[in-house]
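Practice problem 4.
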């Protein structure tokens, strides 16, 4: 737990869901956390709540779809805090109404999804690298998705983007490992964030639960625990990897639920 105490962490999309849980987990272990997100009011409220809880926190306003704001948020963190030790790239997403099956895709929307997910991740990493290289130390954690590993009936661009993040993770790990910098990705399955509970009916959530090897659905804290592990010295020999945190959804033959029902 002490391995990240007083280290400087930068977390994007940190005012809700997985990002908020990651920021809390790092702060609870003593890191000085920059809470980065696009809504200033939410950023300020989150920072105030962290400080009331006794955590060390500051805010940064950045829009993941605007590369310049991503870079500026990292640069400002380094300027104010003197360095950056941990980067958690969580911000991203897609519009499921526009991100359809291939035949119905709006090709112009491709660039929006890539900018929001891949380019923002690349920008924050690029901005953080000089500080990490100077100190010969750093841990970068990118939030991917099982959608970047498996196929789906929609969210085509999102899957392409998350696959890109997984491979970007390998490239960063390969290029900067000798300089003491580690880079890993976390690929969540379904996680019970507000966005999921607001958009997925209970019947759909139960389908996911039935497909999981574990009889439960994930919580943001499950991802945050993995991120905190990857940020610290306990994972010092892990780099270039994608840790799948999906309750076992992708570990088995996809027919298992139906086969089990036949024999039950």
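Answer key:
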């Amino acid at each position: 737990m002490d391995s990240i105490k007083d280290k400087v962490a930068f977390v994007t999309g940190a005012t809700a869901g997985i990002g908020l849980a990651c920021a809390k987990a790092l702060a609870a272990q003593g890191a000085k956390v920059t809470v980065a997100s696009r809504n200033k009011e939410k950023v300020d409220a989150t920072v105030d709540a962290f400080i009331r809880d006794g955590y060390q926190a500051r805010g940064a306003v950045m829009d993941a779809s605007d590369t310049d704001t991503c870079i500026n948020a990292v640069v400002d963190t380094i300027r104010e805090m003197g360095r950056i030790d941990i980067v958690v790239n969580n911000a991203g997403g897609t519009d499921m109404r526009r991100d359809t099956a291939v035949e119905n895709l709006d090709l112009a929307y491709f660039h929006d999804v890539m900018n929001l997910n891949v380019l923002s991740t690349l920008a924050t990493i690029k901005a953080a690298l000089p500080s990490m290289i100077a100190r010969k130390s750093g841990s970068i954690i990118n939030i991917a998705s099982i959608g970047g590993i498996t196929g789906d009936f929609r969210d085509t661009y999102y899957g392409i983007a998350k696959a890109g993040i997984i491979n970007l993770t390998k490239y960063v790990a390969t290029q900067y490992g000798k300089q003491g910098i580690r880079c890993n990705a976390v690929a969540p399955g379904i996680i019970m964030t507000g966005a999921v509970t607001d958009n997925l009916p209970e019947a759909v959530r139960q389908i996911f639960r039935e497909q999981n090897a574990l009889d439960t659905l994930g919580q943001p804290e499950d991802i945050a625990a993995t991120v905190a592990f990857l940020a610290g010295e306990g994972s010092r020999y892990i780099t270039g990897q994608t840790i799948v945190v999906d309750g076992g959804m992708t570990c088995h033959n996809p027919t298992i639920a139906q086969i089990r029902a036949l024999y039950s």
